[in-house]
C-alpha cells in the first residue's frame, strides 16, 4: 500500500474513532437524562429545616416514579398540571421534594392530605381536631446554616396513619407554635419541617403555603453521602475529618410504624 493510501486510511480511521466517541458521549448523556427524569434525582440539604432526619450536608436521592411525573419533574418545566404515570399517592409521613412558589426546590415532610385540617397549639400538632401523640426521646443541640447553635428537645411524633418520625423543638412557644387552622385544598398537600422551629413551611402561606400535587418532584428515599458544614464533596482532603460515614447509604425513614388509633 502506498504512503498516500495509508494516510487516507489513517484519516478515515481517526474520523470513525471520533464519531464513535461522540456517539458514546451522547448515549451516556441521554441515559443520564432519562435516569434523572424518570427514575432518581440527587439532591443536597443546605438548611436546618429537616434536622435531624436530614442534616445540612446530607446528599440523598428522590424517586421520580413513585408519585408519577409533574411539570417540574423534567429538566425544564412543561406546561401541564397534575401528574402522569403515578404508581402511588403521597402519604402522611412521606418526605417530599417540591417546587415552591419562591421558584426554589424545597424538601419537607407531608403532614396534611387534601381536606385535612391542620393547626399548631402551644407547640403541639393537631390534625382534624386531634392532638398527635408526642413522646420525648432526648435532648441535644442544633446548628443551622449560619453556624448558630441552640439547645433542642427531640420527640417521636405519631401521625394518624401510624407513621412515627422524629422531630425537634427549641421550645413550644416559638413564632409558628400557635397558628390558625389550615384547611388543605383539594389536590394540595401541607408540608412541615422536622425541625419545627427552624422551618419555613406550609404554616407560612406567603412563602410556602399549600403545595399543589403538580409541584411535587419526587419522594426522598435514601442518603448516599453526608459531610459536615456543607463542604463541597469534591474536596477529598476534607473527607477524613468531616464525612459522616454513619449517615451514608441509609433510608431517610424510620423503620417502624405503630397501629393507628381507632
Automatic annotation (TrEMBL):
<comment type="similarity">
    <text>Belongs to the peptidase S26 family.</text>
</comment>
<dbReference type="InterPro" id="IPR019758">
    <property type="entry name" value="Pept_S26A_signal_pept_1_CS"/>
</dbReference>
<dbReference type="InterPro" id="IPR036286">
    <property type="entry name" value="LexA/Signal_pep-like_sf"/>
</dbReference>
<keyword id="KW-0812">Transmembrane</keyword>
<feature type="active site">
    <location>
        <position position="108"/>
    </location>
</feature>
<dbReference type="GO" id="GO:0016020">
    <property type="term" value="C:membrane"/>
</dbReference>
<dbReference type="InterPro" id="IPR019533">
    <property type="entry name" value="Peptidase_S26"/>
</dbReference>
<feature type="domain" description="Peptidase S26">
    <location>
        <begin position="19"/>
        <end position="224"/>
    </location>
</feature>
<keyword id="KW-1133">Transmembrane helix</keyword>
<feature type="transmembrane region" description="Helical">
    <location>
        <begin position="21"/>
        <end position="40"/>
    </location>
</feature>
<dbReference type="GO" id="GO:0004252">
    <property type="term" value="F:serine-type endopeptidase activity"/>
</dbReference>
<dbReference type="GO" id="GO:0009003">
    <property type="term" value="F:signal peptidase activity"/>
</dbReference>
<dbReference type="InterPro" id="IPR000223">
    <property type="entry name" value="Pept_S26A_signal_pept_1"/>
</dbReference>
<dbReference type="Pfam" id="PF10502">
    <property type="entry name" value="Peptidase_S26"/>
</dbReference>
<keyword id="KW-0472">Membrane</keyword>
<dbReference type="InterPro" id="IPR019757">
    <property type="entry name" value="Pept_S26A_signal_pept_1_Lys-AS"/>
</dbReference>
<dbReference type="GO" id="GO:0006465">
    <property type="term" value="P:signal peptide processing"/>
</dbReference>
<feature type="active site">
    <location>
        <position position="49"/>
    </location>
</feature>
<protein>
    <recommendedName>
        <fullName>Signal peptidase I</fullName>
        <ecNumber>3.4.21.89</ecNumber>
    </recommendedName>
</protein>
<keyword id="KW-0378">Hydrolase</keyword>
<keyword id="KW-0645">Protease</keyword>
Amino acid at each position: 500500500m502506498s504512503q498516500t493510501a495509508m494516510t487516507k486510511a489513517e484519516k478515515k480511521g481517526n474520523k470513525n474513532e471520533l464519531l464513535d466517541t461522540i456517539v458514546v458521549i451522547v448515549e451516556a448523556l441521554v441515559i443520564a437524562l432519562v435516569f434523572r427524569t424518570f427514575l432518581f434525582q440527587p439532591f443536597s440539604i443546605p438548611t436546618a429545616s429537616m434536622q435531624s432526619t436530614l442534616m445540612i450536608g446530607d446528599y440523598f436521592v428522590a424517586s421520580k416514579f413513585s408519585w408519577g411525573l409533574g411539570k417540574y419533574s423534567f429538566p425544564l418545566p412543561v406546561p401541564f398540571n397534575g401528574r402522569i404515570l403515578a404508581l402511588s399517592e403521597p402519604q402522611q409521613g412521606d418526605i417530599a421534594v417540591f417546587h415552591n412558589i419562591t421558584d426554589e426546590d424545597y424538601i419537607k415532610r407531608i403532614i396534611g392530605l387534601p381536606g385535612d385540617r391542620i393547626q399548631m397549639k402551644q407547640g403541639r400538632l393537631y390534625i382534624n381536631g386531634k392532638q398527635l401523640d408526642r413522646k420525648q426521646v432526648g435532648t441535644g443541640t442544633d446548628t443551622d446554616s449560619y453556624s448558630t447553635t441552640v439547645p433542642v428537645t427531640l420527640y417521636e411524633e405519631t401521625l394518624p396513619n401510624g407513621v412515627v418520625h422524629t422531630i425537634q423543638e427549641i421550645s413550644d412557644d416559638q413564632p409558628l407554635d400557635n397558628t390558625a387552622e389550615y384547611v388543605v385544598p383539594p389536590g394540595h398537600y401541607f408540608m412541615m419541617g422536622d425541625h419545627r422551629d427552624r422551618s419555613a413551611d406550609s404554616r407560612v402561606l406567603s412563602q410556602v403555603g399549600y403545595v399543589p400535587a403538580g409541584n411535587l418532584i419526587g419522594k426522598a428515599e435514601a442518603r448516599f453521602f453526608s459531610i459536615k458544614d456543607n463542604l463541597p464533596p469534591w474536596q477529598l482532603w476534607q473527607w477524613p475529618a468531616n464525612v459522616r460515614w454513619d449517615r451514608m447509604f441509609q433510608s431517610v425513614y424510620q423503620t417502624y410504624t405503630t397501629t393507628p388509633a381507632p
